[in-house]
Amino acid sequence: MRTITALLLLLIPNILFAQQKKQAKKKSYSIFTSWGYNRAFFTRSAIHFKGQEYDFTLKQTIAKDRQSPLSAKNYLNVTNLTIPQYNFSLGVLLPRDISVTIGQDHMKYVVQTYSIATLDGYTHIPDEFQGDYHNQPIVITPDFLHFEHTDGLNYVHATINKEKQLLEGKRRQTYLKALLGVHAGVLIPRSDVKLMHYDRNDKFHLAGYGLGFNGGLRAGFLKYCFLRLDYKAGNINMPDILTRGIAYKDRAKQHFGFAEFFYSFGLQYNL
Predict the structure, then answer these.
(1) Residue 41's Cα: distance from chain center in Å?
(2) Residue 196: what are its φ and ψ, rounded to 5°?
(3) Domains and CATH numbers, the chain
(4) What residues have CB less than 8 Å from 76, skipping those under 6 apart?
(5) What is the number of helices (H) and of strands (E) in the chain?
(6) The pLDDT value given to residue 113
(7) How far apart are CA 4 and CA 77, in angstroms?
(8) pTM (two decimals)
(9) Is 83 helix (H, G, I), strand (E, B) or coil?
(10) Is 231 left (phi over 0), alpha (psi -120 to 50) or beta?
(11) N or C: the chain end with fewer CB closer than 10 Å?
(12) Is the peptide bond before 152 cis (omega within 30 degrees of 0)?
């Protein structure tokens, strides 16, 4: 009996130490930040324009992103870092490999000039476009419409990811993880719009919201550094797009799907 008691007295400190170590490991977390660049794709969209003298919808409009030319001036000059289509995030890695981030995806959305859309509605503005339209094809010329979210299609969002370790190097300084999660946030575009004879609008405005899912890979190296390759998809709904500036009631609204691929470099610090 004394022998068993002695063994228990020897084992209890080790058991308690192991439990404390396990609990400390579970409670550990990290903070991280990243910066990168994206390529975006958009589904066709119906854009509804409404003002005092017009009310019409452009159906099946085609839009693409706008990539900045690859150059040291655009991608290495600190003063120009926000000109290309960029991604920024700041987050925390919680126990059970759950990460929570806030960030901004700066995409660019450009309705293609001279593409063909379907026009339905009316305009009573006294110019060459005056009239009633019933699902008629129209070429989007610059004198009819210039429509862009190029500075930009700013998606400010929160993301929750579940991370799974795939590979781990010695001393945990290198690793490869898979990520899968969901995102939701608001759209604050700076829309560049020139509609018929009206003055150009180019103002930041809270226009709507977005949500969707995402997945990716994260490769860690040199203890604090990592590279990420991500895919993001979802829906964007903007019911309050400025077309003539905040002083007017004229608005446009649209919704569309998007897909985004981006790569980023980041730093992570374990607390």
Answers:
(1) 12
(2) 50, -125
(3) 29-270 (2.40.160.20)
(4) none
(5) 2, 15
(6) 96
(7) 71
(8) 0.87
(9) coil
(10) beta
(11) N
(12) yes
Hey, is 79 helix, strand or coil? helix
C-alpha to C-alpha distances, 160 to 34, 213, 259, 269, nearest whole angstrom: 15, 10, 18, 19
Q: Looking at residue 27, what is its pLDDT?
A: 59
What is the spatial distance between Cα 82 and Cα 234, in angstroms, rounded to a whole number? 23
What is the DSSP code (8-state) at residue 82? T
How many Å apart are CA 170 and CA 133, to the nearest integer? 68
Backbone angle region of 96, left / alpha / beta, with phi > 0 → left and psi within -120 to 50 → alpha = left
Give the bridge partners for 255, in sequence order.
237
In single-letter form, the type of residue at position 104 comes to Q
Contact 218, 179 (CB under 8 A): yes
Digitized pLDDT (tens) for each residue of the chain, 271 residues in all: 444 334 334 444 454 444 444 444 455 789 999 999 999 999 999 999 999 999 999 999 999 999 999 888 888 888 888 899 999 999 999 988 999 999 999 999 999 999 999 999 999 988 889 999 999 999 999 999 999 999 899 999 999 999 999 998 877 779 999 999 999 999 999 999 999 988 888 889 999 999 999 999 999 998 899 999 999 999 999 999 999 878 889 999 999 999 999 999 999 998 8
User: Which two tokens mark 159?
Assistant: 């993301």
Burial label for 83, CB within 10 Å (0-12, 13-18, 19+), is middle
- What single letter denotes the amino acid at residue 82? T
